[in-house]
Design goal:
The protein is of the alpha/beta class. It is built from eight helices and ten strands. It has helices at about 35-45, 75-85, 95-105, 120-130, 135-140, 165-175, 195-205, 215-225; strands spanning about 10-20, 20-30, 55-60, 65-70, 145-150, 155-160, 185-190, 205-210, 230-235, 235-240. The chain is globular.
């Protein structure tokens, strides 16, 4: 048995702090921190637009990264009210019911988008995303999220050890570039959980394309939002789980 060097991805704690108080800590790839902070703030509904953020400051603490996010007055007032509502004593069985409601929050309707995807768009988007994953090519151990616009290809992509993190980073990159979510499809290298659908809807995209399978709750949530969920993209084959009318010219089987 021969020994050989192998590159592996790094992961580090990344804390999101609002008004000086830590709100969440993620284990994430140490890159694209401002995109991450902006995207997380948007997809979690903390802000409705980048204009509600006054400043983002990335602090390297050695053992991890603390991202200080300063919200403008109106957004900060909403956030403080939300934080008080979700707070409850540890170990209390019923006091966290608001947190359950938050996890199961409704998603924005995206069915009004005029986006159409051909089978070639879907399979091509996955192939193009694979070409924009340098960290995965080096390590084989990270997820990617990309944004595909018909006629333009993958216009933005981000990688991370966490699939949700990659999607948040993508959301931030799109917002910074002024790219509207209704213009294309989110493409991910992971399975599709309900959180991935929620974040895709927050971006404003009417379609999510994945190489792996969705959960039942993700399918129901996408259907209610008017979102086309395409998964199990393998070569030229894929399954359409919701809203197949957005996929033109004889798409692969509709399995809902």
């Amino acid at each position: 048995m021969a020994s050989a060097p192998r590159n592996v991805p790094e992961e580090t704690p990344v804390a999101f702090s609002y008004a000086g108080t830590t709100h969440a800590v993620m284990m994430a790839s140490p890159a694209d921190f401002e995109d991450f902070a902006l995207g997380f703030s948007l997809t979690e509904g903390i802000v409705g637009s980048p204009d509600e953020i006054e400043a983002i400051e990335v602090q390297d603490l050695g053992a991890g990264i603390d991202i200080q996010i300063r919200l403008k007055d109106s957004a900060n007032t909403r956030f403080e009210a939300r934080r008080r509502r979700l707070a409850g004593p540890v170990g209390c069985g019923l006091c966290g019911i608001e947190s359950i409601d938050e996890a199961m929050r409704s998603v924005d309707a995206v069915g009004a988008s005029k986006l159409k995807l051909t089978p070639e768009d879907i399979t091509g988007a996955v192939r193009l995303l694979a070409m924009q994953q340098p960290l995965h090519a080096e390590t084989g151990a990270v997820h990617a999220a990309g944004f595909y616009v018909p006629g333009k290809g993958i216009v933005a992509a981000r990688e991370d050890v966490g699939r949700h993190n990659a999607l948040d980073k993508l959301a931030g990159a799109l917002a910074k570039a002024g790219i509207g979510g209704a213009s294309g499809a989110v493409v991910v290298t992971s399975r599709v959980s309900v959180e991935m659908v929620q974040k895709t809807a927050a971006i404003g995209s009417p379609a999510i394309v994945a190489v792996s399978a969705p959960t039942a709750l993700a399918i129901r949530t996408a259907d209610e939002a008017g979102m086309t969920l395409v998964a199990l993209v393998r070569g030229d084959d894929f399954d359409v789980f919701t809203h197949p009318e957005r996929v033109t010219r004889g798409a692969a089987k509709h399995v809902a």
